[in-house]
Design brief:
This protein has 222 residues and is mainly alpha-helical. It is built from five helices and no strands. InterPro entries: CFA-57.
Length: 222
């Protein structure tokens, strides 16, 4: 009986092992998945820490830039106010343009009020050179634009002149034809008055000098 009982127990143990083995495999798979998720979470934590550091650095930079912008705005506002004051004072000084003494005194006072540091000659020469270069570049661009416009206008004028010339030549030819017709008509009328031409010669004269000449030649031959 003990052997039989042992056999039954062994059989049940084997059955349980067969049932437990898939579960153990599932548990092993789940453990691997958990380990992978833990690794991903650790990576995310590191990334979040780095992002927090980056965000902190960017916030500091943003704060610094905002302070710089505020300083520049304040400086710009002061310069604009100073410029308006200078323009107003300059306008008052210009009112004395007809009085050299008052004008000189006003300019001197403006200089004392607004010029607080002497500009070196090198700086002045540098400013003059930059302004000269800027004006030169502007003039060169203007000259190039005018040259292109002149070339375009010249081409258009040449085309217009050629067209007008052709029209004039055509008109001249037409005028010459009309003059020849007029002379032929006068000759026809003169001959008609002297009784040397028939009535149809005037009609032929209106057709042109060539036709009138051929008609006159035929009439003379007859």
């Amino acid at each position: 009986e003990l052997e039989k009982f042992k056999f039954v127990l062994d059989y049940k143990i084997k059955e349980l092992k067969r049932q437990i083995e898939p579960r153990e495999n599932e548990i092993a798979d789940m453990r691997r998945q958990i380990n992978e998720v833990d690794g991903e979470l650790e990576t995310f934590h590191k990334s979040n820490a780095e992002l927090d550091l980056m965000i902190g650095s960017l916030r500091k930079q943003l704060d610094s830039m905002q302070r710089t912008i505020m300083r520049h705005r304040s400086r710009l506002s002061g310069q604009q106010s100073l410029l308006k004051t200078f323009q107003s004072e300059l306008h008052e000084v210009v009112q004395s343009i007809q009085n050299p003494a008052e004008l000189r005194q006003g300019v001197s006072e403006l200089y004392k009020r607004h010029v607080h540091s002497n500009m070196s000659r090198e700086e002045a020469d540098s400013d003059i050179a930059r302004e000269y270069a800027r004006q030169k570049e502007y003039l060169e661009r203007s000259i190039d634009a005018l040259k292109r416009k002149l070339a375009k206008d010249s081409a258009m004028h040449r085309a217009d002149n050629l067209r007008v010339m052709q029209e004039n030549m055509s008109l001249i030819h037409e005028i010459n034809d009309l003059r020849r017709q007029q002379r032929s008509m006068k000759q026809a009328i003169t001959k008609d008055e002297s009784g040397e031409v028939i009535e149809g010669d005037i009609t032929r004269a209106l057709r042109g000098p060539d036709r009138w000449a051929s008609a006159a030649g035929g009439f003379g031959g007859a």
